[in-house]
Amino acid sequence: MQERLKRKEYWVSLRTSDRAEALQHATAATQKKRHEVSAVYRRLSAIKETFHELDADQQLALGREAYATHVRGGADLIAEFEASNFDTLKAFIEARSETVDDLVARLRLARSDTPHIRVMAHTLMEENGIRLPEGSLAFQQLLEICADTFIEAKRNELAQLRGRAVHDAPNPHYVDTVTGGPKDYVSLGEPLSLPPEPTPKRHAS
User: Rounded distance, CA 82 to CA 19, Å?
Assistant: First the structure.
């Protein structure tokens, strides 16, 4: 790590001159810095964790991140309506709803495997420093996660266009059912980038 990072040590300010207070914050500050250093090292070294199957917690983390990404990149439907040839917002909403229904049908028919969804899946893998081999159960799980969260985001766009915060049946795993926004999440890559804690030394008794 020294050769790759060009550093032999890191100093972390605990922002206090009080020894007792410093000791209280030392463990958390050290863990945070270890995490940051390890994450940089993994990126520089192109170290990626390989998964052949995702467990429930991993699917949840990727799903919440995917939904948050879709929401951030969502369309401005009011601007689209104003630039369209539709005379009324109602007509625009109906047409948009049909488009979303058609999109859902095509995604289901393709088993969530479309070029757009693949781009999203590979982006998530890259951002989290993971590798899911094509043909593996994990890769198919990720495609389905990306497709499902994309559909959630599109349905929620329609709900907001109708003046509602959230659509009729949001997925509570990914969606805040009150606001329609993404739920808080810790990305899958964050805990993966943590280095192992030092093994306590054992003293002979």
Answer: 61
